[in-house]
Amino acid sequence: MDIFQTLEFSQSWIDLGIITPAKLQEMKERWQTGEDPHTEHYRWGAFDEFLKAHGELDADLIRALYQLGANDPDETMGGSIQAAIMRRKECPIDLLESAANSDLNFLRKIATQRLSSE
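The chain above was modelled as a monomer; its predicted structure follows.
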């Protein structure tokens, strides 16, 4: 079993440094217990851990993480990533402006609120 594919990660998760071979092994062991069959929980956990381990993120990384959410196979989980990124104080204005035109209502709402408070 390839845990990377099973949990629906893309190469971007590795390229951005969110997951490592050690992290994947840890996830594989947890997956094999059968306690949590929801692949998006593993992706969210890795993403959340990454954010907590880093302080302020540069604009390029913010944009890449936002795109990671946009590309997630689970729209709700991907939207949660995008929302978390837009709520960060260092989220670039141009990203918020772009999100203000999103097809997704909740992203438009977050972006509009952030832009009006800037």
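The mean pLDDT is 95.
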